[in-house]
Specification:
Elements lengths: L5 E5 L5 H10 L3 E5 L16 E3 L10 H18 L4 E2 L3 E6 L3 H13 L4 E2 L2 H7 L9 E6 L3 E3 L1 H14 L3 E3 L4 E6 L5 E5 L3 E4 L1 E4 L5 H4 L7 E11 L13 E4 L5 E5 L6 E5 L5 E2 L16 H10 L9 E10 L5 E5 L2 E8 L5 H18 L18
Parallel strand pairs: 1-2, 1-13, 2-9, 5-15, 13-21
Antiparallel strand pairs: 3-8, 4-8, 5-7, 6-7, 10-11, 11-12, 14-17, 14-18, 14-19, 15-16, 16-17, 20-21
Length: 378
């Protein structure tokens, strides 16, 4: 009879909660740790919604991972009976000659993705909430929409517990260290435990936990702002998520209640975070100027004064490609970090990959371009 592997999961946020679910579903003995509790809003997993999309704007190599995530989103919803994701479609808009818009069309062609190119006249009638510039291209991804981050994290963690995982809430991990001869030692303020392997998903605290990491992960403060429409939405109106590319780069997601719209900016507008334990959650009036200009220019149906503001943290690598795989000289510690804004839509697939690597030492998923193996820089 095969020995049941004992695996620690350090951090039960966006990816850690999914890793705990996938590990527990495959029979591992799982002990997960979190400095707060699953579903907290102190890192990157808050904000009510995150975009899920099949079409990619920067690298077509993510498409197979998105497809795997798509399957697992459905599986987690079926196992729990919770609506974690809603497919509303997602609109890509921007100058036809913009590099990201060209990538969108190239990825669609390469992978045969379902899509609809929407002409300007049709846009004005069917999607009056958007305003296009002359020369813009608009492309609708029907296999897209939004996911609910807080609900997803709590649901994945609860499902893991139902399958036998133990979650140690409000228990910061102080050290993850390899054991001579194999295995991993996890130290908290309360005790030290030994495991066969550890999946480390520390989010913005990656530098605190792993100060000698050979790759750099910069933590940025991202602002989300919610806006109300000037008038009620017409009955039956289509309200897809959307991404605006070009000189003005932002994204938007309709709220689950169908009333407000959440807007977010690209990395270029984020501020570096010196200490993830001291995130500045206050948004200054000056930081709203970019939002106001975007709303007035491209979203004519919204009141430009936001009704809600929130700040979160996201980790970015220099290449914007995540770090997925074992630490150097330590195959038993599996790191997943630096998702660079790509994490939530991929999270079930990333959790599944983490389970593959922790239990089998390999994965059939195509992760060469994001793997830590033989990767000199990030």
């Amino acid at each position: 009879m095969a020995t049941r592997k004992r695996v620690a999961v350090v951090g039960t946020g966006t990816v850690g909660s999914q890793a705990a679910w996938r590990l527990a579903s495959r029979g591992a003995e799982v002990v997960a740790y979190d400095r707060f509790a699953p579903g907290h809003d102190r890192s990157a997993a808050g904000g009510e919604t995150r975009v899920f999309r099949s079409v990619q704007t920067d690298d077509g190599r993510y498409v197979p991972l998105v497809r795997r995530a798509d399957t697992l989103w459905g599986r987690l919803q079926a196992e729990t009976g919770r609506e974690l994701r809603r497919l509303t479609g997602s609109m890509f808009m921007g100058p036809a000659d913009d590099p990201e818009m060209r990538t969108v069309m190239d990825v669609i062609a390469e992978h045969g993705l379902a899509h609809e190119v929407v002409g300007a006249d049709v846009m004005a009638k069917r999607f009056p909430q958007f305003r296009l510039d002359e020369g813009d291209l608009a492309v609708l991804d029907p296999r897209a929409g939004f996911v609910r981050p807080e609900l997803t994290v709590q649901t994945a963690a609860r499902r893991a517990e139902e399958l036998g995982a133990r979650i140690r809430r409000y228990t910061p991990v102080r050290e993850v260290s390899p054991v001579a001869g194999g295995g991993v030692r996890i130290r908290t303020d309360a005790d030290v435990e030994r495991f066969d392997a550890a999946v480390v998903t520390p989010g913005p605290w990656v530098g605190d936990l792993l100060p000698d990491l050979p790759w750099r992960v910069d933590v940025y403060r991202a602002i989300s702002a919610w806006f109300l429409p000037e008038d009620d939405h017409r009955a039956g109106a289509e309200r897809p998520a959307f991404i605006r590319m070009g000189d003005t780069h932002f994204y938007g997601i309709p709220s689950p209640d169908g009333l407000s719209v959440k807007l977010g900016l690209s990395q270029a507008h984020h501020r570096l975070v010196d200490d993830p334990n001291r995130l500045n959650r206050t948004v200054s009036p000056e930081e709203l100027e970019t939002f106001t200009a975007m709303v007035r220019r491209y979203l004519p149906g919204l009141n430009p004064d936001p009704v809600r503001l929130s700040a979160y943290m996201e980790g970015y690598t220099g290449s914007t490609r995540p770090l997925v795989g074992p630490l150097p000289d330590c195959d038993d510690v599996i790191l997943l970090a630096g998702f660079s804004g790509q994490g939530f839509k991929l999270s079930p697939a990333l959790g599944d990959i983490a389970a593959d690597l922790a239990l089998e030492g390999r994965t059939s998923q195509p992760i060469d371009f994001i793997s830590t193996l033989d990767r000199a820089t990030a």
